[in-house]
Amino acid sequence: MIDGRGSPRKDRAKDITAPRHDSSNRIAKPFRPPPTKSNVANATGRYLTQDQQAEQFIADEDKFVLKQAKRKADIRVREERATPIDYLAFGLRFIDSDRDVFDEDDDDVDIQIPAPETVLQGLNEAQLRELEEDMRSYHTLESNARNKEYWTALLALCTDRRQRLKPQGPEGRAVTSVAFDVDRILSPKTLEQLEGLEKQIKAKLQSDEPIDTDYWGELLRSLLVYKAKAKLKNVCAAIKGARVEMLRARDPERATALEASGGFTSTVPELLPGATKPVVRPAASTPGPQAGASSAPPPGTARFAPAENEDFSQATKALYDREVARGVNEGEEIFAAEEAVPGIQKPLWADKYRPRKPRYFNRVLMGYEWNKYNQTHYDHDNPPPKVVQGYRFNIFYPDLIDKTKAPTFKIVREHGRRKGESFAPAGKEDTCLIRFIAGPPYEDLAFRVVDREWDYSAKKERGFKSSFDKGILQLHFQFKKIYYRK
């Protein structure tokens, strides 16, 4: 009777406090197939390694620098203060698929653009060398195939132009004797014909048959120049076509006139005074006639003069342009209060490596100091004079011989003054030298800065930073704030 039909079986006995099973309300886990090799590969593809993340960061940063460079070139052309590189970059904007649509201006199509070859013709050897550096920066940063081909062709023409301006030796005069024949052969040929002839000439030079190597070598060199001209001609034709289409909707008559013309002007507007370089290169400061007067500008506002042995390598140029593109934020000023390095001697490695001065792009942080005196005599509508609140040093060492030793810095206080001591008169602040030291091939640098206690906190945007990464020594610091109790 106890184990009758109505009694629950022992193996089915349950806790009476457990939840009751309801067949009409079932909750089941979704079915997930077992992982396969393709699923694992897809999941792994969503995560980047540290090297891939670094490459992605550099690529994104290069895009930002290139975008800023194009934007600044557009602004200078529109304001009629353009440099040669600005005209070359501005012309490309009409066919640039990577151009930011927010940078478009309807009046750009009305601006007269000089032909790229015309821009090169009016420059001397020093200007061509400077322009070549600018073009290499664009060529390095560009990822668009047609844009890169445009800069490649211009670099070839710029190099050829520089070679023609140099005085010729005996070999050069011998080669010039066949220049007329070379031009007569190459000038009427198309790009496809030049590419075919290039293969034939290279095969002939590599063969063992007796040939006039001077003639065929000059023919190959000239062929590469004409090949660049043909590629540039195709790009210019595309630029002209794009401008014609933009004008056709606004002014059909002007579009027809532009289509019948060459599309570019044959003259280059004269540069405005001081517009030979879009961005001033920080270098040694030149004191004015009253350097010691109280009206002298604060550190970082002095004018700059280029150094003779300054580092102009391609790696340095890329780092410098990338830092310049970041711009100067509110409350910052460009800082270049460079001083002579005390007790400098010729380095031991000077006979083996050519010493060069590293380039830099430094900023000084300026702001108001609301101490008790300023709170009494000034307000926010009538603020006190700005004072130095900190510095941001960015010094470029991309070509260090020994990359295992990072550059360092040290503070130099003159006249035996120690840290914490003050020799400055009332109302003035002590200054000291901060000296940056690196190995070959770089010389030491020194800057005069305000000597106050640094804030070593880790606050974002205000904290202390001292690092050396990717060829850039960064030393960022601000001074400790002094708070006054009422």
From TrEMBL:
Q: Which residues form the Splicing factor cactin central domain?
A: 49-235
Which GO biological process entries does UniProt record here?
Answer: mRNA cis splicing, via spliceosome
Q: Where is the composition biased (Basic and acidic residues)?
A: 1-24
Q: Which GO terms describe its cellular component?
A: cytoplasm; spliceosomal complex
Region (Disordered), start-end ranges? 1-41, 278-306
One Pfam family this chain carries? Answer: CactinC_cactus
Which PANTHER family does this entry report, sorted A to Z?
POLYGLUTAMINE BINDING PROTEIN 1/MARVEL MEMBRANE-ASSOCIATING DOMAIN CONTAINING 3, SPLICING FACTOR CACTIN
Family per similarity comment? Belongs to the CACTIN family.
Q: What is this protein called?
A: Splicing factor Cactin
